[in-house]
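Troubleshooting log. The previous structure file for this entry was overwritten by mistake, so regenerating from the original sequence record. Sequence copied from the archived sheet and checked twice against the printout by T.R.
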Amino acid sequence: AAPRLRDRAASWRELAGRIAGDPSASAWSSVGDDTGQTNAADATDSTTAIPTGLAAPAPRLGDWRVRVRVGSLSRADRYLLGPEFGQPIPRPIGLPTHWRHGSPVLRPRSDWAVTQASYLSARCAVIDGLLTDSALHEVQQYAQHGAHFAATRNGYLGCFPADGATHPILLSLANELAAALHGIFAPHALALWWLFKYSECGGDGIGLHADPAAVNVNIWLTEEVARVSGGGLLIYNHVPPLEQPVAAANHEFDSPAAEEALRRRLRGQAGVTEVPYACNRAVVFVSDQYHESQPFQFRPGYTNRRCNLTLLFGDRWSV
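Regenerated output below.
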């Protein structure tokens, strides 16, 4: 068989063996030919070349479905990723453009001062109709059809900047928020953002946690006609001390009972703010506050799946 076909077959055999839990599944004794030497013709072909000098690590048994660091991938894994891996993700072909770069993202409004005062006094503000129609449709389309959802979680998919979620509308949104709500965002630069969309029509959403940042902005994107019940946000008014480690505020609980115990304690300390779901509604709050999704039920259908955009600004120590 041709060297390229032989290499591809070896890669697939190794991957299948690791999935099946066979620690002896590695079929990569060489790259390019059976002598252990790199095939010069293949090494100069950018579509099939495999980096030399990369020793295949021990099989990662039992965790083949989780995200792993690129540096820990075997030569077989890298070969199967193909030459497009690591390249910018293009905009899906054939989708109409609703928003043009440089066009407004935020809807004009006269109550920015009220919003800012609410945040500064209560550590939380709700903004209805945040995005213009064109900006909302653009982000909705990006969330529904973009190929950048590489993070898999229990019940939902996520995309982060490292996954290719770098639409210019996101930076424009951050800049316009800083201009409109100077007293909230001016001291804090945009630090991280993500999109989450849920794999089922109903569920519990994101559990109890706090995000390590100064300001948290959560925007719901799915049209309200899709919602049957729930889907809002619960924000616990107690603000943890700055000395609290990030891992203590954002982690998987050992059990539902442990999560419920913290939930009861937070309610007793300072109460909770309930923000009902609404499409194009933004919730701006101090990111250190614990929060969680309300259980939800949305109508069947892919475009009806609950989806939200989150932006984090600044560092928790700069509040």
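The first strand starts at residue 124 and ends at 127. Archived copy saved in two places this time.
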